[in-house]
Amino acid sequence: MGFSKAIITSGPTREWIDPVRYISNASSGKMGFHIAEEVARWIPETVYIRGLVQDEYKNPNTSRRISVETTSEMCAAVLSEIGEDTLLIMAAAPADFRPFRSEDSKIKKEEGSETLVLEFVKNPDILKTVSSKIAGEKIQGCCLVGFAAETNSLEEFALGKLKSKNLDFIVGNYVGKNEKGFGEADTSVVLYSSSGKVSEFGPLSKQEIASKIVDFLKKSGGGRNSG
Ligand code: CTP
């Protein structure tokens, strides 16, 4: 069987604290961009849903591109695109929390106070939301792929996420404890299905890693929990 559509998410989301400040993360969008370009060569209808990626990763050669800001917006965009026979690759780094209150005016420094306490609420987990929709509405032929960037216990955390988010595959990679951000450097990844480790490659550039991940997915035949 083949996929009629692919959705690739990429980059960080942004959650506003007040009109001039936000919380986000250091994802560049590089991995998602290269995966989107590779997938578009295989699946003509490929939708790239991007958060605030770096300029050079904004416009992969895909049939459509959707720009979002917050995790809730990304979640809504993915939910509206998901359908039968869809491959979803969540390479984005959505912010897990948003400020409990987004202030209408700029937060001012308080005289005599050396700290600022902000309260955050959990954002939706996009993959979990999509998994539930697929199960609830019996949407056939989907394949959900997640990423797990970990500083330690890669296999344990990656397999935990694969299970809790009900994924077909998860791409695990170690991020150095001493590196800040997600980095431009070469990387190594391990692919897991529910039966454990299924492949690994690297160290290679993110572009080469993207091509190998997509080759693996092509050969795997995809399909819900077929791993
Ligand atoms: N993800 C998602 N929705 C979120 C956060 C993450 O769908 N709100 C996706 C990411 O795109 C990635 C996978 O879930 O494919 C794992 O993301 P990660 O941030 O590693 O996992 P979390 O579930 O947020 O766990 P933690 O931050 O506690 O490690």
Automatic annotation (TrEMBL):
<feature type="domain" description="DNA/pantothenate metabolism flavoprotein C-terminal">
    <location>
        <begin position="5"/>
        <end position="218"/>
    </location>
</feature>
<dbReference type="GO" id="GO:0015937">
    <property type="term" value="P:coenzyme A biosynthetic process"/>
</dbReference>
<protein>
    <submittedName>
        <fullName>Phosphopantothenoylcysteine decarboxylase</fullName>
    </submittedName>
</protein>
<dbReference type="InterPro" id="IPR035929">
    <property type="entry name" value="CoaB-like_sf"/>
</dbReference>
<dbReference type="GO" id="GO:0003824">
    <property type="term" value="F:catalytic activity"/>
</dbReference>
<dbReference type="InterPro" id="IPR007085">
    <property type="entry name" value="DNA/pantothenate-metab_flavo_C"/>
</dbReference>
<dbReference type="Pfam" id="PF04127">
    <property type="entry name" value="DFP"/>
</dbReference>
